[in-house]
From TrEMBL:
AB hydrolase-1 domain mapped to chain residues: 21-255
Protein name: Alpha/beta fold hydrolase
Pfam short name (any one): Abhydrolase_1
GO cellular component, one term: membrane
Gene3D superfamilies linked to this entry: alpha/beta hydrolase
Organism of derivation: Natronorubrum aibiense
Entry annotated with the keyword Thylakoid: no
Amino acid sequence: MATLPLEDGTLWYETHGDGQPLVFIHGGWMNGQAWTPQVERFADEYQVVTLDVRGHGKTGATEPSQYSIELFTDDLEALLAHLDLEAPILCGLSLGSMVTQEFLDRHPDRAAGAVLGGAVRSMPPMDLPPGMKPLLSPMPALTTSLSMMGPETMFRSLLLSIQATTGEQWLSIDPSVRATALDAVGEISRDEFRKVFGALYRYEPSELTHVETPALVIHGEQEAPLVKRQGRQLVSELAAGERLELSNSGHLVNQDRPNAFNAATASFLEPTAQ
């Protein structure tokens, strides 16, 4: 892996292949290795870039006491500038989809295309009255729970809560994918887990009606219904948005159905090829 020095940390990233840049941003508490099936598929045609978002993977802890989706997007912009990448195609999953949306909001016509897997607009994935979100913040309870049980057990608890609500194996229907994801969570410190959770919870998305970038939203069939609803809302805002739902897959749709995800992505990207 290569590194990009930041003012308050070091960003780790990898590049593979040559061609039009295709940049992958992983989900919360995962790392760049979550995109292995996509790197293997697209590195022969594109310049594939993966990164470990701050707080995750090899990038690990950085100095700020609080993270935000905006900060993660600043890091993405810094990496694109560092690599001198023009007209990138962005592919983000979950937290990475939020980063992608924030980038599109800032740069409505800069990206050549965007693929948003497990796309979520906000957390929790529901509309709350203005001003209520800070009052309902789970951060104090989360901090207390983390001190007692640690990130992996905390994440398992969150999964059980979602499963009880949806009745589905929400994260992934593949036991090996779930196990790998939990291993990645277990490598994150309590403080970094808290900071990432806070970034997800606090994010307030803007409407994207001004975005001209073609975008494909991909959800798994076992995705949480409220997240699917947000995906439909997202597509309705985008000038050139479309949505696909893959059967036999959960939130980690790119790993549950890698061949189908790759085929859909490749088909979507054909018109963007330079």
